[in-house]
Amino acid sequence: MTTPIFVLGEALMDCIAQPDGQLRPLMGGSPFNMARAAALRGASAAYLNPLSTDLFGQGLAQLLLRDGVALQGGQSRLPTSLAVVQVTDGQPSYGFYREGIADRDYAVDSIVTLLRQSAKPGILHTGSLLLIPPEHHKVVAILKAAREMGWTISVDINLRPKVAHDLTEYVQALREVIALTDWLKASDEDLETMGFANVAIGESHRLVHELRQMAAAAGMATHTLSRVALTFGGEGAHLDIEGQSHHLPVPRITVADTVGAGDTFWGNTLADWALQPHDDAASAGARVAQTLENAMKAAAINCTRQGCQPPTWAEVQAF
Q: Could you give the domains of the chain?
């Protein structure tokens, strides 16, 4: 029996600006994308937030189901969140519309109940927009309850500083979340915004060490930040499992855009770990290079497509 992956986070419409000024709506949201990527890799994935009953919400639900993601969060009469995306030289920038929307229409107790009803503790993933204060208070409460039940906590920081009212408060919220995290993904942009110095792939070992020190300083006493992935855009990525590490450059491809590349990368990484029947640090560390290579391939395939379109496992193997 594989380990289930439960995903807590936003599902929204990415309205991508076109050269003629029109907006092309594409389904997105970092955790939403990650759930799809993990399911397409073959993992058992479930999405926990409510989806709107509006037309966009119905489309999001259909796409999740098509890609093999179970819907656990029910429906909300609130509208679907929107993001306006401007892509320049393949790199996206975002503006978000996040007030009074469906994926924030959840209660801590309802999510904890869903976790408790699982046949066994699995991997609880979150990150991105739900980590912005004051929303992070609900997330921290859920993560604490999940840890007590034996769930492994995965977080993709995916920091969105333009959405936060107070960057200092936002970074402090991230420290609270990281203190409860087992498996962490961060991009070079995340680390720079959080105040880390000399952020480069050649500094990965130091950066991982500093992240673990930060987690320890935040009060983590009963566990360690055991698995850390760092991504550096076109420079490649680094994966560390309790000191066993590997880094790789980006495969050579023709880039359409990079929307959802990090989500696809982390979804495939989590799925690789979830699909191992007796996964522990030693076995995961032994295959760290292969895990990273497959995740990089999946992200590269996604980058050849417009918007987030994670590949299937068969496509990754054939890449």
A: 5-9+29-75+107-318 (3.40.1190.20)
